[in-house]
Amino acid sequence: MNTYHSKYTKLSGSSYNELERKARKIHNDIAKRTKRNAYVRSKYFKKDKIFIKLFWEHLNQKSQRNRKRRLKYYECAIDLLRNNTFEPDTRPNPNGKHEIVHRFSGLTSGGELFYVQVKEDIRNDNKYLISVFPPK
What we know:
The protein is of the alpha/beta class. Helix content is about 30%, strand content about 30%. The protein has one domain. The protein has 4 helices and 7 strands. Strands 1, 2, 3, 4, 5, 6 and 7 form a 7-stranded mixed beta sheet that branches. Strand 2 and strand 3 form a beta hairpin. Helix 1 packs across helix 3. The two termini are about 20 Å apart.
């Protein structure tokens, strides 16, 4: 699997509130450009929309420490979704029989590895950003 090199570094911040404020600003800038659901257009999926609201719902299910760890890569993940053309690791979703999960890998400009997961609903061809995380 090829790795996309992002032009952004991790979001800096020592507290969860600080990181969330920065990540929400990025999210709100994207949401202002859309009428209903916030989305980014992806080069890999031939300019299809990837909705990003599900990421925040998934993030709120995690512990605060884990949220902080994941939010640091939010800006890099948005860059990866917009500009990546490399083939992801694609598997059927074990939790839903009508879904496929694509896992993209990326590197920050500082050289740190991270993964981005996108869920694709086969029935209506919608794509959703699920998760962003570094390797363990």
